[in-house]
Structure formats: structure tokens, C-alpha cells
Amino acid sequence: MSANVNRRSAIKGILAGTAVMGIPPGFSALAMPKNEIETQLGTLKGNINHSVSRWCFDSLDLDTLCIEAKKIGITGIDLVGPASWPTLKKYDLVSTMCNGAEINLVDGFNDLKFHETLVKNYTEMIPLVAKAGYKNLICFSGSRRGKTDEEGWNNCVIGLQKLIPLAEKHNVILVMELLNSKIDHKDYQCDRTSWGVVLAKRLNSENFKLLYDIYHMQIDEGDVIRNIRDNHQYIAHYHTAGVPGRNEIDDTQELNYTAIMKAIAKTGFKGFVGQEFIPKNPDKLASLKQAIAICDI
């Protein structure tokens, strides 16, 4: 058996034994050498539910990703549609953020001309999500294209209100992602926590919430922990990635993910935190394991 295969089969979680080993409460996996991370893996603590975004590891076939994710302690895969759900079920994994009803990231609910298509797509998809036993279905505001905030909010409300009753009936949550408009998604309208929260308040339904992408919101607004604390009731899901670069969440980037995870856990959040970074390390699974180690507070 190769060293890599042996290492992968041995790693299933991290940090559960820190108290027993006398590791201080302020311990951070960011400070650990890679070999230390790998030798201290054990049962995950259960304070954070871990998932991983499919597209970031698309060099692996889905079966392989599922097998390796389960070894690490990940219980869900983000951003897969109905065609992939049978594979997830085969490995007893959850589709933690379903997709497939959206048009794309730029043509969204903030523009009336896309409503007919979006309402049709989501009307068909919501029952499928529920039938599969899943809960979260992603959606997007779309690009601003010169619209004021008020126009964007009003248009989103018009479109989403047509779907909220169906989502409520099936106990599915429509989850709008917060994306940065500075670097990755120029002109995207739902680019600040406050914008998404106003929309959530206007819709006034537990079946509409936000996907708080930590990477994106660090770029566009910062103050991550305060925004999470103040707005956690409107958040259904979290995504991670290192800033700058959208790569590993290790000590090469500026965010303290251990502190952020502690803040999320303190809100009582029971949803999932999805790893959505693009690995630079050729051993992508090693980077994924390290990310789970850092986030498993």
C-alpha cells in the first residue's frame, strides 16, 4: 500500500482528543505542521456539520469524492443536482445545497424578464428536492445591470413570492448566495449581507434564507464574525475559502477560520459549512482534510 493511500485510510477527522492530550483551548490547526494534523485525526467533534462543494474537486469522479469525504467525516456534498443524488445516497451522504433550477449566476430573480423561466424551473425542482429528502435549493439575485437596490429587491420579491408557498408546502428552503462583486462576480447584486437580509425580511418566510459565503463577504464587506452574529437567523448555509486567492484556508491567507467556526457554532447553527476552496496542493484531498481539521472546533 502506498504512503498516500495508507495516509488517506487513516485520516477520518481531527481534534476530538485535544483535551485528553492537554492541548490548550486556544489551539488552532493553522499552527500545526501537516504531519501533526494527520497523526491527531480522530472522531470529529460534532459542533460543525461538514460538507464540500463538488465543483472544487471535479478532477475526482463523484464516487471517489464521496468515498474520501466519508473517510474524513464529511456528511454532505454541495452543489449537485438530481442526476448525482443516487450516487450520494449510495454512500449515505446528503445533498446539502441542491442546484439545477437556476439559469446561471447573472440571470436571476432581480430581473423580471427571467421570472417565467425561473418560476418554471423552481416549481419543477422544489418537489424533487423534497422527494429526495433534501432541504436547501440555491438561487441567485443575478447581476445588477444598472438596477437600484430598491428595484432589485422589488423584482426578487415578485419572483420569489410565486415560489415561497410551494417551498413552504414541501419544507424546502430557497437559499440565495451572497457573492462578491469586486473580484469574482462583477455587478452581482446580492453582494452584501445587508442586501440579502432586507430581501429576507421582505419575504418574511423561514423558507427563504441566505448562503453566507465567508470568502465572498470578506472581500466585499469584511467584519465577518460580527455580520454572522447579527444576521445568523437569516443564514441557512456557509461556504469557505482562503482570502485572497480562493485557495486553502490555511495560514497562507488572512481569515481566522477557527474563530469564525466558533462564532458560527455559538449562534446555535445546525446546518452545514461547505468547503468551497480551490486547492493549489496537487494532493487535493490532503488540503480538504486540513480544512476540516481547521473547521472542526
Walk me through what this model shows.
The protein has 297 residues and is α/β, with parallel strands linked by helices. The chain has a domain at 49-100 and 173-295: TIM Barrel (Alpha-Beta Barrel). It contains twelve helices and eight strands. The chain has helices at residues 3-10, 34-39, 62-72, 85-90, 115-131, 149-161, 164-170, 193-203, 214-220, 224-231, 257-266, 284-295; strands at 49-53, 76-80, 94-98, 136-139, 173-177, 208-213, 235-240, 272-275. An eight-stranded parallel sheet has the order 3-2-1-8-7-6-5-4. Helix 4 (85-90) links the parallel strand 2 and strand 3. Helix 6 (149-161) crosses helix 8 and helix 10 (224-231) runs parallel beside helix 11. The radius of gyration is 19 Å and the shape is globular. The model is unreliable at 1-41 (pLDDT under 50). Residues 94-281 form the Xylose isomerase-like TIM barrel domain. Pfam families: AP_endonuc_2 (PF01261).
Feature tags:
eight-stranded parallel beta sheet; 297 residues; 12 helices; TIM Barrel; single chain; 8 strands; alpha/beta; 13% strand
Poorly predicted residue ranges: 1-41
Total count of helical runs of at least 4 residues? 12
Strand order of the largest sheet: 3-2-1-8-7-6-5-4
The SSE order reads: HHEHEHEHEHHEHEHHEHEH
| Percent range of helical residues | 25-40%
Which architecture of the domain at 49-100 and 173-295 per CATH? Alpha-Beta Barrel
Portion in beta strands: 5-15%
Q: Please summarize the sheet with the most strands.
A: 8 strands, parallel
Radius of gyration: 19 Å
What does the overall shape look like? globular
Structural class: alpha/beta
- Beta strand count: 8
Q: How many angstroms does the end-to-end distance come to?
A: 32 Å
| Average pLDDT figure | 89
What's the CATH class of the domain at 49-100 and 173-295, please? Alpha Beta
Q: What is the CATH homologous superfamily assignment of the domain at 49-100 and 173-295?
A: Divalent-metal-dependent TIM barrel enzymes
CATH topology of the domain at 49-100 and 173-295: TIM Barrel
Keywords: Isomerase, Pyruvate
Domain Xylose isomerase-like TIM barrel: 94-281
GO molecular function: isomerase activity
Protein name: Hydroxypyruvate isomerase
